[in-house]
Each structure stands twice: as C-alpha cells, then as structure tokens.
Write a structure and sequence with these properties.
With about 250 residues, the protein is α/β, with parallel strands linked by helices. It has nine helices and twelve strands. Helix 5 packs parallel to helix 6 and helix 5 packs parallel to helix 9.
C-alpha cells in the first residue's frame, strides 16, 4: 500500500535529506544509501538490490516492488527538498548499504585499483566502464570518493548493483594480491615502463592514479611493472576515467 506524505518535516523526509546531502558517516549509521531516478530504480529491481524505501511523485507510476519495501508518494515540492538532483526525476530509493570489505581471495583475473581518485563522477564512470568492459571488481585505496555517495551511484548507471567494489589499505592490498597470485601494475613512468598495448594484462590489477598527483609512491614501490598509454607528445595526460577505459580495453584483449 502506498503511503502519502506531505510534510517536509516528516521523519522519513528528514532521514532522506540527510542521506542526500550527508557524508559517509550518515550512510554508515543508517545502513542505507540513496539512489535517484526511475531508470536507476528499475536497474536496482532488475539486479535484486535490497531496497528498503521507494519515494515517488504523483506523476510517476512506480514499478512493482518486492514485499516489505516501503512505498511513499510525496508532492513535487517535497521531492525537490529531498532529492540530490537540482531537477528531480520524480523517483528515488533507499537501499541497504553493501559491505566494501574485500574477500580473503580474489577469484577473478582483471581488477582496477583506484588510488586517491576523489572525484565522485570519475569513480562512478570508471565503475561503469569496468563493468561494461569485463573487469572483475574495483579496489579503492588512499581516500577515494565514497562509492555509495549519491553522485557516485548515479554515475555508475547501475554498475554499482552488478560489479563489486572494495575499500582497503595499500598494505592489505599487497597481501590480497599476493594471496590471489595477481600481479600489480601501475600507470606511471619509470625505467621499466612499457606500452600498455605490449603488457600482459590478462591477469592483473592495474592502478589508476588521481589526476592531481598520479600513482602514489607506496603503490609504485609495490608494482611489478608500469605501463603507459601512448599519446601525442603535445598531450600531457588523460583524466582518470579516460585512462581507465584504455586500460580496461587492453585488459580485455
């Protein structure tokens, strides 16, 4: 049964507003994260994401929801106060927060390591590209953007429901890759650097550094080899999301 809420001061509206604008600690305390838009909601349902609440405006017909999911209708003006979007699409949802603790062993072959990539749009776009181009997961180190912030979730276009992401430390990453027998490569320049097209990336974890400082020294010290993306001499670098796509394409060959 659909509930109707008209007050902006309703406890649920206040909670959603906090999840919309608050940081990681708010999501961790609530055990939930927020997604917005009917398309993202449909993707969440398609991939059996554990939804807790769906909120729509009167002009939106909600899709069929699993039993136990709270369905709420709010006026357009209330939606505008709780949505992270400047122009809300008329639907948003809350879902149970997924664990980002890595497994004891990685069972796949191809992984990206994001090193201090703090821009939510870049993290979400890379996540989406990794899903599309066959990676087995993402590993985040050194203070990347929160993978379940609204901006990251939106930028993944549903990839966050399909491809795992884990947060770890450099030291834990080193042990995990050793246990999993996966070599670490980094996108950087040093004496052993090879063209990414010549590197054997069929079984590898490749580090993508932040646009500001590149790959951290701690990860460079642990990388078995470094790779470069060939570019015109007049071009200094690609942004993190673009570099990730090139690496992912080469990993999939």
């Amino acid at each position: 049964m659909m509930e109707i809420i008209t007050s902006r001061k309703n406890p649920l509206m206040q909670k959603i507003r906090q999840l919309s604008s608050g940081g990681r600690s708010v999501r961790e305390k609530a055990g939930e994260y927020l997604g917005d838009g009917i398309k993202l909601l449909e993707e969440a349902l398609k991939w059996d994401v554990p939804l807790t609440t769906v909120v729509v405006t009167p002009e939106v017909t909600p899709p069929a929801l699993p039993a136990g999911v709270r369905l709420v209708q709010v006026p357009r003006d209330v939606m505008e106060t709780i949505s992270p979007m400047k122009t809300p699409q008329g639907a948003l949802f809350l879902a149970q927060l997924s664990s980002t603790t890595p497994p004891q062993r990685l069972e796949g072959k191809r992984y990206l390591v994001l090193d201090g990539v703090q821009d939510p749009g870049n993290v979400g776009t890379i996540w989406r590209s990794a899903d599309a181009l066959g990676a087995d997961g993402l590993l985040l180190v050194n203070g990347c953007a929160d993978p379940y912030s609204p901006k990251v979730v939106r930028a993944t276009m549903g990839a966050c429901f399909r491809l795992p992401v884990w947060e770890t430390t450099v030291e834990e990453l080193e042990g995990l890759l050793k246990t999993s027998q996966i070599p670490l490569y980094a996108t950087a320049l040093r004496e052993d650097t090879v063209d990414v097209r010549q590197a054997d990336l069929g079984r590898a974890a490749v580090v993508i550094g932040s646009e500001g400082r590149g790959v951290s020294q701690a990860l460079l010290d642990r990388a078995e080899q470094t790779v470069k993306i060939p570019m015109r001499e007049r071009c200094e670098s690609l942004n993190a999301a673009s570099a990730a796509v090139v690496v992912l394409w080469e990993m999939g060959k």
